[in-house]
Design brief:
about 160 residues; Glutaredoxin; 2 domains; four-stranded mixed beta sheet; 6 helices; binds FE2/S2 (inorganic) cluster
Length: about 160
């Protein structure tokens, strides 16, 4: 089973390399495609990308670590991103964050046990005049209060 999974991931990455080329500049689109399709980039996928692009695995890992939208651990079905930028921060983000963590029983960067929700920070969502703000998948919610945030989470 493991061998089959490995072969299928290798084939998938080979197809991506075919599509994007073997240059260093192909690294980001390849990682984005793996992230989009699998919601994370496994250790094996990282090794295969490095091997097929002929670069060091540490380089692949550093790119994944640098960009907040790339992950090396499995993500939840839904991603909740709470804005941590200054305007939301002074508009009550901390109280909203506490309520969310309490409700989900996880910290920032973690995923609920049922794999339903991953909680992350994000930078400004462009809704500063209506903060605190958060994004659930691709939908933005504004003027959050602890109660409103919890209600939104319960509806996911
Ligand atoms: S600071 Fe939070 S949306 Fe701009």
């Amino acid at each position: 089973m493991l061998v089959l999974e490995k072969n299928s991931m290798t084939e998938e990455i080979e197809a991506l390399v075919e599509l994007h080329g073997k240059d260093r500049s192909a690294l980001m689109p390849i990682l984005q495609a793996i992230q989009r399709d699998h919601k994370y980039i496994s250790d094996f996928a990282q090794q295969e990308v490095a091997r097929l692009l002929d670069i060091h695995p540490v380089e692949v890992f550093s790119v994944i670590s640098f960009y907040s939208f790339l992950h090396c651990v499995p993500q939840g079905k839904n991603i909740v991103r709470l804005c941590r930028t200054i305007v939301c921060d002074i508009s009550g983000k901390d109280e909203v964050e506490k309520a969310i963590k309490r409700e989900l029983k996880i910290n920032i960067g973690e995923t609920t046990k049922d794999k339903k929700i991953t909680l992350e920070y994000t930078n400004c969502l462009g809704m500063c005049d209506q903060g605190p703000a958060m994004m659930v998948n691709d939908k933005i919610f504004t003027k959050l209060t602890p109660e409103k945030a919890v209600k939104i989470l319960k509806e996911i």
